[in-house]
Each structure stands twice: as C-alpha cells, then as structure tokens.
Write a sequence for this structure.
C-alpha cells in the first residue's frame, strides 16, 4: 500500500526534482519516499539508485509500494542487470529503476556508462566524500539529467567533506578542491610536515549562502511532533585489575596479557588500546579468554544490572568492536544480532526477530545506516567513535517517524574509581560534541537564509 506523504514532504519532493539538489534533512524524515516521489514527477528515462547494501531491499520495497515502476536490484559486482537492455528502454513507462550499492558501482561503472540515465539518486551520499576513492571517481563519471543526493550528515570533520559532493553536482563550479579548502577550512601547517592539521570550518555563513540554492535541511522538531530524545553520558567506574591495567597502559608502551604482548607503537594505537581496555581487556590481544583478568569488565557488569532492572524494555545495544559483540553481546540476543558481512536475508531475519522481542545487538558500523529501529526507544552505546557523523546516524535509528515514546541514548563513559579521573571515553565524547556544534552552526545559517527568502529580502 502506497504511503501518503506529508505536505512538507511533497514540497521537498518538488524542490528535489529540480536539477541537482542535496537533501540533508534529519534522519527519519522519509528522504527515501521524498526522492522516489521526486523522480516520479520528472523522470523520463532509467533511474539509478545508489544505496548501502543493507538498504537495497528497503528501496526496492518502497519503490514498489509507491508504484514507481519496474525495479532491478544489482547483485555483487553489479551482476544481474542487463545493462545493454536498460540502455534501450529510454523513456519507457512505467519507469525503470536500477538499485546498486557503492562497491558494485565501483566495479561495474564501465558497463553502466552506456545507459542514458535520466536521474541518479545517491543515498547516504556522505559515503562519497573522499575525492580520491575509486567509488567516488566512478560516480563522477556517470552522466544524468539530474542528480539527487541524500544524507543527513553531509560533512563530519570539516566542510572539506562537502567538496566531492558539490563537484559531482556542479563540476564546472567546483573545480578546485584546494581552493575550496583554503576558503572554508580552518587548518594549520606543522613545520617539516607535508600535511595540514584540520581545526574545523571557517566562513560558514559565506558557505551557507553559496550552497543554499541547492541545499536543504529540515529538522524533526520543525515538522514532526516526535517525542523527545535525550542523551546521557553514564559514568562507569573501572576498578580492580581493569583499573590497574588501564593506568599501566597510560604510563607505559608495553604490556603482557597471559603471555600475549601488547605494544603501543604510537599515539593513535595507544588511544585505541586505551579504549579497548576501558571496554574489555580481552580485546587487547588475540587468543586470550574474555575474563582475562579474572573479573567481568565494568561496562559488562553495568549492562547486566541494567538489563536485570529493565527486563521488558525494548533496547538496542551496540559497540564499535565486533569481537566484543561476539564475545559478550551476542548471547543477549543470539537471533537478533547484526554485524558486518552478513547477507541481506540474514539481516532481515534478525530485524524480524528484533521486532518480535524488542532486543537487538550489533556493531556500530552495521546498524548506523538505513535501518528502521524505532521498535526500541532506548539505545546503549558500550563505547564511542571519534566520528560525529557515525554517532548521529546511530542515535537517529530509533528517533524516527512513527516513534511514539521518548527516546534515550546512553553512552557508557569509563572513569577510574580510585583516581577519580576520566578515561579516553570522555575525550571521545567531547570531540564528537564539538563537531556536532560546528555542523549545526552552518545549518543555522542555511535556515536564516531560508527565512530571508520567505520574507522576500532575498530571492533564490
């Protein structure tokens, strides 16, 4: 049954249907539906949808529900699609849609060059922010009459992440990455080094004015009456042997666990190892028992107590470390666990079990995109990631259209019980918050410009 769009979704569809637009609305506002409706309004030929592997079936199902036309889903390496026949269909009605994931695009783009694409829709477009990546360069080579880019997180570390997307939409206007970088990225050069340290963005008001004609972002609170979402940094004290090991790793560059060596080669490695130690010391070396110190890790103990106190609460539990998920979390929901590399049908079975039981566990990378997880209203993040984009995407899996309960995202943040000091977890949380604030600043500039247009002070 076709879904009825809100008035603001129809307006966004009409806006997106114009040539080459970037829709950056919050997660959960139906960008898939909006893009399908936009393509139906204007497309006169084949439509290409580039979407993450786990969301290809969702796109296929939604296109069919909206009576969009014939749909073909490309398999691995773009297999399963007769590209020569697609190129002959031209203005055929009903519309012909082809769905492929980024890796398949990278491999099969030469076959796809023969197709006269009317519209190309890029879902989770931030995956193409790396201008040097082969999949990004493959995307640039595909021609179409119009381009629709969808992402709630168009940039993370700095506005430089936007350039590859802008170059794809308007290659004649955005020809130089470094000219764009110098204008909008706040950076510094370290003497004797060949790279720059990115501090953030600059001239964001100017950037907002520049991209406003083809960039739109809606916020949930402006268009939906969703229940609130709250974020809690939950302190969890490390104690006993886990605390002592963490302190030792802070002070030294070498440790030994049950005959296994742990060497901290540089600052990046040390940061990773400290995060692993704060979560589960068994992650520090392969082949050690999960209770390597003879005690349950503090965060696992906290989680067990929380689940005992909330036995009927629908919840999602996630970690960035697959080994941790497979050692500790999978036993909490063996039939509703999602990790990287799973086949699509296995993911769908896990989601079906989750919708039945209300409990899902998984790795952050596997569940942060394209999944509708509003069956749960609580999410527990066992550890953190430095990526503000990933953190935002993850939390928005539960705070979406049709959510009826207040949502709560709990980040477990380790601290030292006896020394009363925070661990690396706190540094990660602060870093993520700063990056969010910068992105929100540019979005605010965009909204100010939209208000000016409404009052006829400026004309787009």
């Amino acid at each position: 049954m076709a879904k009825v769009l809100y008035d603001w979704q129809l307006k966004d569809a009409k806006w997106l249907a114009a040539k080459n637009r970037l829709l950056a609305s919050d997660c959960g506002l139906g960008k898939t539906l909006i893009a399908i409706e936009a393509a139906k309004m204007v497309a006169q030929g084949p439509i290409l949808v580039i979407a993450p592997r786990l969301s290809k079936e969702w796109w296929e199902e939604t296109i069919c529900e909206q009576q969009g036309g014939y749909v073909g889903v490309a398999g691995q390496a773009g297999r399963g699609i007769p590209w020569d026949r697609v190129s002959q269909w031209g203005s055929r009605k009903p519309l012909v849609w082809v769905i492929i994931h980024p890796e398949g695009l990278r491999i099969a783009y030469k076959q796809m060059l023969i197709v006269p694409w009317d519209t190309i829709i890029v879902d989770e477009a931030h995956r193409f922010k790396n201008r040097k990546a082969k999949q990004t360069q493959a995307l640039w080579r595909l021609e179409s009459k119009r381009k629709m880019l969808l992402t709630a997180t168009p940039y993370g570390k700095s506005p430089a992440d936007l350039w590859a997307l802008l170059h794809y939409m308007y290659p004649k206007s955005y020809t130089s990455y470094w000219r764009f970088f110098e204008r909008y990225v706040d950076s510094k050069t370290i003497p004797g080094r060949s790279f720059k340290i990115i501090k953030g963005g600059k001239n964001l008001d100017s950037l907002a004015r520049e991209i406003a004609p083809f960039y739109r972002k809606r916020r949930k609170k402006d268009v939906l009456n969703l229940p609130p979402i709250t974020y809690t940094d939950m302190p969890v004290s490390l104690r006993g042997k886990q605390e002592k090991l963490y302190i030792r790793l802070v002070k030294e560059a070498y440790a030994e666990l049950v005959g296994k060596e742990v060497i901290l080669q540089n600052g990046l490695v040390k940061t990773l190892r400290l995060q692993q130690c704060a979560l589960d010391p068994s992650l520090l070396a392969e082949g050690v028992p999960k209770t390597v110190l003879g005690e349950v890790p503090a965060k696992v103990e906290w989680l067990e107590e929380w689940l005992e106190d909330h036995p009927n609460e629908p919840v999602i539990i996630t970690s960035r470390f697959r080994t941790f998920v497979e050692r500790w979390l999978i036993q909490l929901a063996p039939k509703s666990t999602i990790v990287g590399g799973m086949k699509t049908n296995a993911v769908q079975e896990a989601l079906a079990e989750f919708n039945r039981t209300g409990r899902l566990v998984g790795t952050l990378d596997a569940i942060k995109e394209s999944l509708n997880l509003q069956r749960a209203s609580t999410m527990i993040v066992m550890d953190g990631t430095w990526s503000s984009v990933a953190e935002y995407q993850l939390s928005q899996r539960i705070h979406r259209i049709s959510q009826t309960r207040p949502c709560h995202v709990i980040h477990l943040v380790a601290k030292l019980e006896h020394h009363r000091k925070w661990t690396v977890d706190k540094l990660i949380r602060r870093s993520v918050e700063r990056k969010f604030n910068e992105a929100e600043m540019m979005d605010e500039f965009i909204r100010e410009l939209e208000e000016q247009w409404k009052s006829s002070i400026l004309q787009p």
Q: What stands out?
A: The chain has two domains: 7-222, 229-422. The first helix runs from residue 7 to 17.
